[in-house]
What does this fold into?
Amino acid sequence: MHIVVVNNIAASTEQTRAYAEYRVFASLAPYSRVVLEIEVCLGSDHGDATHVLCSVKVQTASGKGIRIRARGRHAYDAINRAADRIGERLWEHAAAAQACS
It folds into this structure.
């Protein structure tokens, strides 16, 4: 599982990038056999810092791409919401794949 974090928040620190990597990894670790690559992008809403956007793209071993977006009041809030959502989406994907086999 390869994770890339793109941090486009000017006031953000290396700690924010590391937290995003950790939080998404922790959420997707149960699916490590089906996840190949993950890209996490952090940015602000319309160039201001009132809301932070976090998008997560996952490339699976089956070739399917899964993408979610989350918005939060600050970077950690957006990261937490995105990590929870992508974990739920991968759980649904894994359940559907298992039902087809």
